[in-house]
Specification:
Four copies of one chain form a homotetramer. By secondary structure, the first copy, chain A, is α/β, with parallel strands linked by helices. Chain A folds into two domains: 114 residues, 3-Layer(aba) Sandwich (Rossmann fold), CATH 3.40.50; 174 residues, Dihydrodipicolinate Reductase, domain 2 (2-Layer Sandwich), CATH 3.30.360. Helices cover 40% and strands 24% of the residues of chain A. Chain A contains 14 helices and 15 strands. The first copy, chain A, has a seven-stranded mixed sheet. Chain A is globular, with a radius of gyration of 20 Å. The mean pLDDT of chain A is 96. Chains in contact: A-B, A-C, A-D, B-C, B-D, C-D.
Chain lengths: 339, 339, 339, 339
Amino acid sequence: MVNQVSIAVIGVGRIGRLHAENLAHRIPGADLVAVSDVNPEALANCAADLGVTAVADHRAIMEMADVHAVAICSSTDTHAQIIAQAAAAGKHVFCEKPIALDLGEIDRALAAVAQARVKLQLGFNRRFDPNFRRLRDLVAEGKVGQPHQLRITSRDPDPPPLDYLKRSGGIFLDMTIHDFDLARYLIGDEVQEVFAAAAVMLDPSIAEAGDVDTATVFLRFRTGATGVIENSRRAIYGYDQRVEVFGSAGLLAVPNIAPDSVMLSAADGIHAPLPHPFFLERYAESYLAEMKEFVSSLLTDSPPPVTGRDGRIALLMGLAARKSHQENRPVKLAEIAPI
Amino acid sequence: MVNQVSIAVIGVGRIGRLHAENLAHRIPGADLVAVSDVNPEALANCAADLGVTAVADHRAIMEMADVHAVAICSSTDTHAQIIAQAAAAGKHVFCEKPIALDLGEIDRALAAVAQARVKLQLGFNRRFDPNFRRLRDLVAEGKVGQPHQLRITSRDPDPPPLDYLKRSGGIFLDMTIHDFDLARYLIGDEVQEVFAAAAVMLDPSIAEAGDVDTATVFLRFRTGATGVIENSRRAIYGYDQRVEVFGSAGLLAVPNIAPDSVMLSAADGIHAPLPHPFFLERYAESYLAEMKEFVSSLLTDSPPPVTGRDGRIALLMGLAARKSHQENRPVKLAEIAPI
Amino acid sequence: MVNQVSIAVIGVGRIGRLHAENLAHRIPGADLVAVSDVNPEALANCAADLGVTAVADHRAIMEMADVHAVAICSSTDTHAQIIAQAAAAGKHVFCEKPIALDLGEIDRALAAVAQARVKLQLGFNRRFDPNFRRLRDLVAEGKVGQPHQLRITSRDPDPPPLDYLKRSGGIFLDMTIHDFDLARYLIGDEVQEVFAAAAVMLDPSIAEAGDVDTATVFLRFRTGATGVIENSRRAIYGYDQRVEVFGSAGLLAVPNIAPDSVMLSAADGIHAPLPHPFFLERYAESYLAEMKEFVSSLLTDSPPPVTGRDGRIALLMGLAARKSHQENRPVKLAEIAPI
Amino acid sequence: MVNQVSIAVIGVGRIGRLHAENLAHRIPGADLVAVSDVNPEALANCAADLGVTAVADHRAIMEMADVHAVAICSSTDTHAQIIAQAAAAGKHVFCEKPIALDLGEIDRALAAVAQARVKLQLGFNRRFDPNFRRLRDLVAEGKVGQPHQLRITSRDPDPPPLDYLKRSGGIFLDMTIHDFDLARYLIGDEVQEVFAAAAVMLDPSIAEAGDVDTATVFLRFRTGATGVIENSRRAIYGYDQRVEVFGSAGLLAVPNIAPDSVMLSAADGIHAPLPHPFFLERYAESYLAEMKEFVSSLLTDSPPPVTGRDGRIALLMGLAARKSHQENRPVKLAEIAPI
C-alpha cells in the first residue's frame, strides 16, 4: 500500500475547484499536484490559491509521471475522451457524472478503462451523504423489511441558464440521472421499466430549448418494488432533496437539511429555516467523502465505491425516461440496451 | 328554513353506527328517528342504545312521512337501489361511497335523484378533515402559486378480509377512490389521464382474490399539473395519510396525525407516537363535519358539498386506473366515459 | 349503580356554559336539569338553548330533590359558600378552581363536604388532557426512571382585564395554580419548597393592580427532584403549554398543540401553524373528560379523580410562591400550613 | 496585516489535539509550529501526526521567537500561570476555560495580559455554534422584542471520573460556567443575581467527592429578564444542549442537533436519531470557528471575540451559584466581587 497519491484536477469550475480544495487541504493521503482548465483566469487563480502547477492543456498532465490519478471535472462533452486519454496514460480516474450522453461513447470509455486496468470512480456524490447512506444501510439491514415503494423528491432552486440546458441532454440525463443512481443505490436492485411524465410548467423558453422543467418518473424494480421521482427545476423554498423507502416492516425517511435549526414562534406563525440553497451547501460533506473514498481505493488498491457501470446504467435509465416521455408509455430498459 | 331535519340511518355497521351516534347526539338540527339493518342484533342494539325506532326492512322507512332524509351506510351493492327508492319517496340522501361499481348503475341513480329534485351528498369524508380542508383553502388562495405536483400517500394498516376484497371492485375502486376524490378536491381541477402500476407484494391470496395490494397511480390534470398516489394495504406503523402540493410559489404538506404528541428521548433513540391506527380514529372529526354539512344543506336548502357527480367522477378515475394497470399504459378518462 | 345523574350548573359564563353544553349533549349518564346565573340574559339564553330550567337564585337549586349534583362555575369568591350549601343539601359537587383564595375558607368548605359525605371534584382540567395524562402514565410506568427535573412552560396569550386581575389573588393563585397542580400530578410527589421570581415586564398598569405578569417558579419535591414553571401573561404566538420531565432513564416532552398540522414551505421560510389560541380550544377535550369522570364517579360511587385536598395543596403552593416573591427567598410550604 | 500567524498548542489531550489538528489543516493563515504536553506519548504522537516540533517543557515555547501565539489547553490549574508566561514573552493567547477557579488568580493573569498588551481569547466555544449564534443575532435584531425569559438546557451524557470532579471546582465552575457565558452572550446583558438549587441524584460517590450532579440555576438580568439553566451530569439520550429565548414579540428556540436526520416509522413507534453523543461531535464546527476567529483577530489586529473579562464574569457567576446552593438563598454577583 502506498502512502500518498498524487492527483491532478482537470476542469476547475465550480465543482472542480471544490474537489481541488478538498484534495489540497482536507484529504489525508492525497497530494494535489496540478490543475488544468480551458479558462486561463480560473486556472491561474486556482493554481495560485492552492500552490500547485497550472497546466493549460490537460493532455500535458498525461505526460506527468508523478501524477497517479486525475479528477475530470471539465464539461460533459469532454469526459469520455479524457477518460480514454487518462486510461491510456495509466492514470486512475475520478469523473464527474455523466460519462457521456451517448451510450456508444460510454461503452468505448469503459472499454479503455478496462483494458488499461485503471480504476474509474463516477461522481454520484449523493451516495456519500451521511443521511442517504444511513438510510441505505438501514434498508440493507432489513429495517423496513422488503422494500415496496421508493420516493425521491428532488427539486432544484432554479433552472440553469438556457445555454446550459441546450447542451445538457435534457432533464432526465442532466438532473434526474442523480436520482436514478440514488434509486438503485438505496434499494439495491435494478430498475427494469420506467414511465416518465414531464412538462414545461415554469418557463416557455425551456420548451424552446427542447427541454422540460417538471417531471415525475415512475420506476419498476426487478423485485416488483416501485419508485417515484419528483423533479422540478424550481422549488422556491430552496433545494428540495428528500427520500422515503416504504417496506413490509416500516418506513425510512430523510427530510430536507437546513443550515441551522433555529425556530421562531411569532405572532404570524412558527417559522423554521429553509433547506440549504443548493448542492454545494447541501452536499458539502458528500463531495469530501466521495473523494476521500476515491483516494482510499487507490491507497488500498480496492474497487472504487461507484463504478463506470453505475454511470452507464444511470444514463440508460435517463434514455429510457426520455423515450417514455416522448412516446407517453412505459419503456423497459432492455428496449434501450442490455444493462 | 326549517329548524330540524329528521333522518334515518340505513345500515348500522361500523360506519353507519358512527353516523347514527353523531346524528343522535352531536349535530344540532338533526333528529335521528329510525335505524335499519339486515343484521337483527346490530339493529336492536343500535336502536336501544340511541332510543330510536328499529326498522327491519329499510323500505318501510320510505313510507315514514316524518323522515326527511336517509343516510345510506349499507353494503355497496345496495347503494344505487336505495338511492333510487329514497329519491322516489322524496327523501334527501346521504350515501357512503361508492354509489356503485358500475357506471350505468350510477347514472341511473343520479337520474333518479335529479328527477326527484332531492339532495344527494356522497360520503367522501376526507374533504372535511380540518388539515386537508385548510390545505385546499391555502391552495385556492394561491399560497403555492400554480400547483405543479400533488402527492397523496394513503396506506391502510392492514388488508381487509378476502371476502370483502372479492366484492370490493379492487383496490382502485375500493381504496384509491378516496384519493381520487381528494386529488380533485385539493387541486380544484379534473384529471384527464391516469397511469397505474400495481402488484401483489404482501400476500399471494390477494392475487387469488383477483386484486393487488400495492399501487402507485400517476395523474395528469387538465392544467398540466401531475399527481402521484401511493397506496399500500399494509403500513405496519399505522394509517398513513399524507398530502403534499407543490407549486410555483411553495409547498404545502399535511403530515400524519397521531392520537397524542408525547415524545420520549431514551437511550435507544427519540420516539414519537404512531399515527392514528385507522380511519375511524383519524377521520372522527371529518365524519362528524360531513354530516353536519349535510344537515346544514337541508336546513338552508343549499347544495350539498359533495355531489353525486363527484362520486361518479371518482369511480371513472378508478375504472381508468384499473384499465391502465391491466394494459400497462396511460389511460385517458375519456376512454371510459365522458366526465 | 344508578344509570343517570341529574346535574345543575351554577354560573354559565364562559366555562360554565361549556360544562352545561357538555352535560346536555355529550356525556352519557348525565342529565342537565337546571342552570343558574346572576346575569339574567346569560341565564335565559343558556336555558333556552339547552332546553333546561332557568333558576335565578342558585339557592333554589338546593331545594330541588331531583338534582344529584351541582357544577359550580360562578365567580371564585362564591365557591366556598356554594360548596357548603350544596353539601348541606346532600348534593355532590364539581367546582371550578380555586375553592377560595383563603386557606381558612377552604378548610371550612372541605369540612362541610366531609361531614355531608358528598363527593367534591376540583376543576383542574389539565390532568385530563390526553397528552399530559399519557406523559404522567409513562412517568408512573418508569419510562424516565427516577424523575429529576420537571419543566412546565405555561404562558397565556394575553393578560386578563385589570378588573379581573384585581380580584384574582395574583398570578400565583390565579394562573400558576394550574401549573402547581399539574406538577404534583405529573411527578406523583409533593413539593416542599418553592422559590418564585416575578416582575412586571408587559404593562405597568398590572403593577398598579398589585400584580406581576412574568414569573419563574422553582419547585423542590420531597424526593429531591426539582421543577421550574415558566409563566407569562402574554405569549404573542398563542397559548404556550408545554411540559418536560427529565429522569434517570430519559426525557418525556409534550409540545404545543395546534388546531391543524399544515406546513407551508415558501420563499421566506418553512411555516407551521400557531398553537391553539387559548384554553377553551386547547383543553376542549379535557373539559369534557373531567366532567365525564365526575359523572362516572357518581354513577359508580367511586372517589373523584381530583379532590378538595388537591385544591387546597395547590393554593398552599400559590401562597408560598407569593411569599417567596415578596421576600425574595425560598419558602417551605410548611411555613404556610401543614399539607 | 500579516499573512500568517505561527501558533503553538500547549496541552494536546482531547481538546488540545483537536485545536492542533484544526490549526494544522483547516485554518488558512495559521501555521502550527509546535506542540507541548506533560504526557510524552501524547506529545510524540501528536507531533508526528501533524509534522510539528514536540516541546516537552512548554516554557521552551516562550523562547521561540517565531511563535506568535499559544493555545493553552493544559489542565485548568496551569492556565493562569501559562497565560502570565506567554504574556511576558509577548505572545498572544488562546486559553481554554476557565482561566482559574480563583478570582485573584484570574485578576493577576488578566493584569499580565493587559500590561503586555497581548490578545487573550477565552475558549467559550458555544458562542461560535451556528445555531446559538444565529439565535443571538435574531435576539439582537429584535425578533423576540424585549427578552423576558431565557432557558438553557445543558446536560452531559455521563459524569466525568471522580478524580476529575475533585479537581474541577464543582459543577457550577466546571459545567454551568459554559451556560453562564452563553446566557450573557444570548441576552446581551449582565446577570445581577443567581439562585441555585442542586443535589446528588445520580451517584452518592459524587457527594463524597464534594460535588452535585443535578442543578437548576435561576438568573436575574439587569433588565429584569430572568433565566433558568437546567444541568444534569447524565442524560441517557445523549448530549442535551437546547436554548429558548422568550420575549415580548416571540420565542426563539434551538433544539438538539443529531448526526443524521433519518426517521424510522416502525410497528413500535416513530424513531428519530439521538443527539450528538458529546461536545466534540456537537461543537466540532464551533471549535473550528472560534480558532479561525482567534487567528483572524491576530491577522487583522482586532479585538478577540471572547475576552478575559468574559472568563472572569462567568467564574463570578459560578462562585455566586455555589454560594447560593450552599446557603439556599439568592446571591447577588456584587456579594462576590464587582463585575
